[in-house]
Amino acid sequence: MSAIRTVAASGLLALLLALSVVALISLSGVPPVRLSSTSSTTSQGVAVETTSAGAQTAPTTVSTSEETSTFASMTSSQGQASGNQGVLSVLITDPPRVPTGVTAIYVYYIGLAVHDARGWTTIMVAGDVELMGTVDMAQTLASTSIPTGSYDAVRFDLTSALVTYEGVNYTAIVQGGKLTIQMAGDAVVSSSQPAAALVDVQSTIVNVGSRSSPQFVLWADARAFPVPSAQVSQEVETEGHRLSLSGVGWWENDRMITNATLRLSGVSLSTNDLRLTVSNAGSSGTWLKMVVVTPANSSVGMAGEYSIPSVVTGSAVFVVLGNGTLVQFLPLLHVSMPMLSGESQASVLDALSMAGYNLTAGASLHLSYSGSIELSFGLVVLPRGITSGTSYWVTVIGDNAVTSNLVTAT
After folding, report:
1. pLDDT in tens, 187-211
2. Long-range contact set of residues 64-69: C-beta below 8 Å, sequence gap at least 24
């Protein structure tokens, strides 16, 4: 069973607007700031403190006394089920897609809750986790006693993030952070046997700034699975416990049935034409979002077929519309140039509210763009075009899959 689509079309529009804002911020010389939902944070009584750029220590989460009291009341029965109560643990893992140079991703979340026939039960008010350390590992976020029953979904909000890039911490813009994930099967909570659910957060980090002045945007997709009861030990019930997933049969099987794998073929590029075919060789669908054309040089930091460019400044950035067409994203400084024939910038941005193409398992999509291709993202200078005989990376980014191909322009 595939996960609920967690990054809605409106989230992509927000991402594109964020890219414009970030580009303008970088030009103004104003340092990046953390953007989060102030109203949601305030209503939960959560104060989140991040490390400023340049600091070397990990971020911390600071709770108000009200939150601390609420959290204590919810977790006081941890590991002590009684009557019609049972213990449920929620674990997290993440195979993030990140630019070269990123070594840590600290994310902050609120409202970790699970769902059954009676509705939603909150099991953690707020918390934080470092995602790069959960590759092939599962880390326990929370464990508490809740009413017995069959729980079929998990939800939480990613409110802010901190990215460690080349040894320095930078705040990141979080887009599409409200995650509601249908589980591939139920986590059955009983009074006699503890249960656990594993959330597989698939985050993508894009550096829309430069190497010397990075500006990061994070968005995430997610899926969730019940953990086999035989694997739910007393240690799993300990918050912060780490469980290796390397070579674990049930995890490999679960991951296989919800895997999206992108492949590129027929890639061609010229000064005014881009063509490619993207196929989904996996067993689950993915929402295609962006295509990025980046000059192939040492500063790009591409490591191969499944890499993301270290920076997208000076690249050509396209969004994938729901009908399978490409629209070139031009920074706000270039608003005088229409993005589509006969359409204004405003009308195209309106159209982007429906952006994102659902590439189902086993399907292929031919993408093409005809018109001047500008390597202009994040630049104030006159845009550069594609040069014949020069090599470029063409990268396709989905909500849970990435693929790249090196091509020489004709």
Report:
1. 999 999 899 999 999 888 888 777 8
2. 67/125, 67/126
CA atoms within a 13 Å half-sphere pointing along the CA-CB vector of 285 = 16
> What CA–CA distance (Å, rounded) separates 303 from 339?
31
Q: What are the C-alpha distances in Å from 263 to residues 356, 396, 401?
A: 18, 9, 10
The residue type of 267 is V
Cβ atoms of 59 and 169 within 8 Å: the answer is: yes
Residue partners of 342: CB distance under 8 A and separation at least 6: none
Cα 363 to its chain centre, rounded Å, is: 23
Q: What is the pTM (predicted TM-score) of this model?
A: 0.70
pLDDT in tens, 367-408: 999 999 988 777 656 668 999 999 999 999 888 888 999 999
Q: Percentages helix, strand, coil for the chain, rounded to the nearest 5? A: 15, 45, 40
SS3 404: strand
Nearest to 334 by CA among 345, 342, 325, 343: 345
CA dist 155 to 86, 119, 329, Å? 19, 12, 32
Question: Mapping DSSP to helix (H, G, I), strand (E, B) and coil, where does residue 275 land?
Answer: strand
- Rounded Cα distance between 199 and 113, Å, is 12
Beta strands in 190-245 (DSSP E): 195-207, 216-226, 242-244
Terminal Cα distance for the chain, rounded:
43
The CA distances from residue 152 to 110, 113, 196, 331, in Å, are 19, 11, 12, 42
Beta strand 168-175 pairing with 216-226? parallel
